[in-house]
Amino acid sequence: MIKPYIAGLLRRLGLLAWMENARFFLYRIGYRNTNKKFLSEHPGIEMPPDFFLYETYLLNYEYYFKDGCETAREVVDLVKKHLNISQPGSRCLDWGCGPARITRHWPDLLPEAELHAADYNEKYIHWCRSKIKGIRFEQVNIAPPTLYPAAFFDFVMGLSVFTHLSALNHYTWMDELHRFIKPGGILFITTQGNAYQCKLSAGEKIRFREAKLVVRDRVKEGNRLFSAFHPRPFIESLVKDKFEIVECIPGRENQKLPEQDTWILRRLVGKDRVVE
User: Fold this and answer.
1) Residue 120: which CATH number?
2) Please, what is the Cα angle at 180 between 125 and 141, to 5 degrees?
3) 130, 135, 241, 270: least buried by Cβ within 10 Å?
4) Rounded Cα distance, 147 and 144, in Å
């Protein structure tokens, strides 16, 4: 496959960000008419700036809103199988909320819960605070610690967050998540697992198949171009002695758009150990 090698060359030459900006403008032109139509049909919906959408999802207003709503509902339904997060006082956090694609739908789905969201991007948080109601938005650093109290949250969601972190921050954030999630609370994350091998170069595949984390850096950590790929044994080792693996849903393989793995983890209580 040629694409990983071209991307790798651009990354080493420092040209990847320039190519992404050019790609953004092409997408903006391509979606201009459909996005205008969506706004005319839904005048009451606040939409983030176009570049926010491009950085975090797709530059398609309808997909951003409708897929965000569907994903929010799917996540809540999956978590409710293991923990009642609808009851009054439940504290829920969208860790790495971006421009609130998922979070903005939580007030309708979890009206009795105390809702929080956090992101390292100051611009995202500023927009969310000004446009999205019913949620407490906080800016956090790309690396912990945070100001959240210990054992504070019943449920934390991190969709495609570990996918943009360095090897070191996989460990520091897992420690921090373990700290501020209540014993018995749920952590819901997604990772780029086995289905993403189609995106890897030959050398990256060797590392991946050795159960080692694969990281593409040379750009700012947290950015969509900073990418990490996660063999299942790596995640199992990462969460060991902190979280029980309640459910793992492998992503389906698709050469054009592979799916991420979904992990539902329960914060261990006392001297419990991970269930194999």
Assistant:
1) 3.40.50.150
2) 35
3) 270
4) 9
Q: What's the chain's length in residues? A: 276
- Specify whether the CB–CB gap between 137 and 125 falls below 8 A: yes
What pTM was computed for the model?
Answer: 0.90
Cα separation, 5 vs 11, whole angstroms: 10
Q: Is residue 24 part of a domain?
A: no
Among residues 271, 226, 272, 264, the alpha carbon closest in space to that of 247 is found at 264
Nearest partner of 161 among 149, 144, 147, judged by Cα: 144
Contacts for 193 with CB less than 8 Å, ≥ 6 apart: 229, 230, 231, 232, 235, 250, 251, 260, 261
Residue 59: inside a domain, yes or no?
A: no
160-198 per-position pLDDT tens digit: 999 999 999 999 999 999 999 999 999 999 999 999 999
The answer to whether residue 41 is domain-embedded is no
